[in-house]
Amino acid sequence: MIIVLKSKTTKEEIAKLVDSIKKLGLKPVKFEGEERVVVHVLGDVKSDVEAHIKSMSCVEKTVRIVKPYKLASKEHHAQTTIVKVGDVSIGNGDFVVIAGPCSAESESQLMQSAEMMKKLGIKIMRASVFKPRTSPYDFQGLGIEGLKLLKKVRDKTGLFMETEVMDVRDVAIASEYVDVLRVGARNMQNYDLLKELGKSNKPVILKRGISAKISEFLMAAEYILYHGNKNVILCERGIRTFETAYRNTLDVGGVAVLKSQTHLPVIVDPSHAAGNRELIPALSKAAVAVGADGLIVEAHPDPEKALSDGEQSLYPEQLADLIKGLKPVCLAVGKKL
Ligand code: PEP
Ligand code: MN
Description:
Structural class: alpha/beta
Largest sheet: 8 strands, parallel, barrel
Strand content: 15-25%
Bound molecules: phosphoenolpyruvate, manganese (II) ion
Order of helices and strands: EHEEHEEEEHEHEHEHEHEHEHHEH
Distance between the termini: 38 Å
CATH class of the largest domain: Alpha Beta
Radius of gyration: 21 Å
Number of domains: 2
Mean pLDDT: 96
CATH topology of the largest domain: TIM Barrel
């Protein structure tokens, strides 16, 4: 529920209201606008409690948020959220490309990848060191040694680094080495991990689960927001459908729904949706056109030798062509790339 206060409400009256909400076992969150203050009440607000609050002299009106997700909804937060990664803003209306290899494999592979990014003006590089592989026999990632390499490349190149965390125990250590943490599709409903990320101050890219409904996706984001971290970026990466012509079905409609329902930035991962590098330009253009705030795309200096997802990783020249091809689409919809 949202409480809209009268414009002349004093600080003392606000403090009293906040205090009485806490005493009822609910969580008040205060927002100070230019003209007036609104207080959001999180928790199950019973109708007698609402009536009591409504009767207070400083209260102009109360508004019920009917959606199960509150903090992620536009009703709660009309202004769009802009997540800052260093000097890069995600969600400000422009289009941000994050790119890099599926996995960190070696220092030289990371340095070559970083050179690719630098040449194209890409400022955030992805590379996973903790790998959620379907088979236990596949490459599982470099782990903490990989984090150290990411930091080394970060320090040498000035690029910001993005990596996946799979476990509560990864959050603190990864935060020491990288700039952005990612929750993979398989962990979208790992609630302990989401809570831990809520306590972190690092930007989080939250990927949509393979079979998650949009409401479940937003509830997962709600966990991170509720536990205190406002820097959440949603990522549509394709969902599992009956279709087998590509790896997953990129839910372009889902991106449009997200953009209408939430103030959080939404990016698209065309690589894990396509599973095939040839489809990436088309899916990426669709992402721009539907209103996404950016892309996270896999690219590798030598995809044939990649230890994971080589078949969907762009060659260096393909990444350059992708950026070139996206520019006119961005221009057409008024986004800077
Ligand atoms: C990845 O980004 O490398 C990855 C494993 O993606 P997803 O979690 O979307 O499958
Ligand atoms: Mn991958």
